[in-house]
Amino acid sequence: MTDRARPYLQVTGVQSENKGNKGRRLEAAAERTYPVAPIQVLTVQKPRNVANHSYRDFSLVPADMNLPGLPDDVEEMPFPQLLHRMLSNPAHALNMAWMPHGRAFRIMLPGYLGQQGIYQSYFRCKNYQVFLSFLNSHGFKHITSGKDRNCFYHEKLLRGLPHLVQYLALDPPKNARRVLPDPANEPDFYPITEKYPLPPANII
Q1: pLDDT tens sequence across 80-110
Q2: Which of 3, 96, 102, 133 has the fewest CB atoms within 10 Å, measured from its CB?
Q3: Residue 204's pLDDT band (boundaries 50, 70, 90)?
């Protein structure tokens, strides 16, 4: 497929020239909430009923010292922090693990996690279906094709960068709605990570 025919824009800055003034204002307002602006890697323009795989790289965004710190007590940790913590624990690597690029994760044995009571005891949810609803309400997206098929990702959940959960945890959960998949515009994280590398996992 040629660049002209592709239904999205590949950009390297934080703004796209094809956005209207309203879009630029909204984007600028969002960027002001970070000490360092994330880099817009992929911009997708789709109807609301289609998955939007626009993607920003947060690998160079530091923690914001003006925001509340993340809790140390597991009982007080928000869902995104618990998720990052589990992915950073080698004891769970056979069941749930980062992909090699560190920008998405895969659940290999969802049934086994349920049998072991992980969803209820660790994530405070009843079962795998409720766990998926937690992912959806926090803005995680599902990849349906390619090497990362059946993986989930969020631009603010990156391997080795647990401080980014600070920003993700501030995003209020939303009522998840069903959207159509858009495999043609799903991000390819392997070249993205080559350009914007991530640190190794922070082992806990």
Answers
A1: 999 999 999 999 899 999 999 999 999 999 9
A2: 3
A3: low
In terms of pLDDT, which residue wins out, 2 or 126?
126
pTM over 0.70: yes
